[in-house]
Amino acid sequence: MRAISKEKCISDGKLGLQTLFSFVRENAEAMQAYEMEKNIFQLAQTIALSGMKYYFAEKGTGNIGPELKLENDIILKKENRLHGRDYFSIFGKLKVPRSCYRSEGNCGVMPLDGQADLPDRCYSYLLQEIMDYLSVRDSFDESKATLEKVLGLKVSSSRFEVVARDTSTSYDEFYEHKSPPFPKDEGEFQVLSFDGKGVPVIKRELAELKARMGKGEKRQKKKEALVGISYTVDKKDRSAEDVAKGLIYPDKTRNNHEQNKVKAKNIRRLASLERKKADVVDEIIRDAQARDPQYRRQWVVLLDGALHLWTLVEGHLKGIEHVGILDIIHVVEYLWLAGNALHGNNETKKTNQWVYKHLLAILEGRVGRVIGGLKQIIAKRRLNKSQLQSIKDVIRYFKNHRPWMKYDEYLKAGYPIGTGVVESSCGHTVKKRMEGSGRRWSIEGAESTLLLRSVYTSGDWDIYWEAHMQRERTLLNQRMFGAIGYPDDYDTDRDDLYLDRLTGT
Fold this sequence. Notes:
Blueprint: H1 6-27, H2 33-59, E1 67-69, E2 75-78, E3 83-89, E4 92-98, E5 101-102, H3 111-115, H4 125-135, H5 140-151, H6 157-168, H7 171-177, E6 189-200, H8 203-208, E7 222-233, H9 240-248, H10 252-261, E8 265-272, H11 277-291, E9 298-303, H12 307-316, E10 323-326, H13 328-343, H14 348-363, H15 367-380, H16 385-400, H17 407-413, H18 420-434, H19 443-457, H20 461-481, H21 497-503
Parallel strand pairs: 6-9, 9-10
Antiparallel strand pairs: 1-2, 2-5, 3-4, 6-7, 7-8
């Protein structure tokens, strides 16, 4: 292979520019703006590709002399021939010639890879980032179609998934070293919240999970991902009556105003299918500790009714002062269950009044009275089997969660009492991307996408990608100067062969 000619790059670029303006001149009268813009963009890509070729011509082949001495005192000799590799940029594909240093029994080292910061894969870092950005928002097939439509580049959908898996490997290291938000940008309360969301998984992997099915249970099609969030929020003053009216007799104007008035700050999200739930909890706690190392804020834990989550989270927060709060929406749902059982689904006005009255009592700190009142209903009223079961379910739920239902204290302190932030995170981070017609995930593929979705929905995308590229540079240098290099039969025309062999994939 020959070195890239600077003169030819310049000549091709000038020719491309002349072609562009000639095309515009010849077609300006006949073409509408849309068609002209489309053609100019395609011609501009050709010119830009010449610019990338010129860059590599200026960069050289990585020739650093007749030999290369490694740290382990191994001497590598420069080969006479140049080794090419494909470089797939956002402007198209080109071949990059590189000098190779090799000794008997050792793989070749290409210094240009480090000098030009070339990625392992043939796709440029910019193209990889665009591929990732598309695939965290849409399916891999949709991302493929978008890339082809916008940039005219054809990349198989399977490559999108492979690149996403590569990028997600920087997740742990990034958040381990990420600086916390500035204290002045934080709220008064440090909030932690967790919830589960199912992800559709391919049948083979579900079978490997050995999910047990009881009599009458449907075959499971999903595996639960745990979503954890850490954020801060300012104090919010409202009365029990305000909350009850807003939930039972909502006024859209008032609710929208209230929603805009108080906002969660600096939300850190983590959704994981593969990690242990305990590990997700620990990571979210570590994020909170990094933001409030002296525990100067009041810590608030907001959860729904899942008792196993309460046990898990409370266990991991031993020694850390915090307030546990049951999501008020779940309380309302159980009150509706009782109200509908007693008054019927059709008696909207009476049911609303009943639910409002009992919700107000709970918000005012009279949970015991509500439970006692429900017990009296069982004792004094003639209930059918369905009604009786519904009332018993509500009583049991309130009794089990009573330690986290001190809403009079929570409202007085101005704490948040709803899990809307984590529930919206479940929808935004998990459901929006992971669910859809016919979508089934491998555990590994789902995990990498969930991690990148977590980065994206946490607002860390740009700084994450900078950190990922830096990490890749470090790994590349380690491989190069560790004399791993490239095998004798490396052929860059075969996409990603080197990396596949290096990693054993």
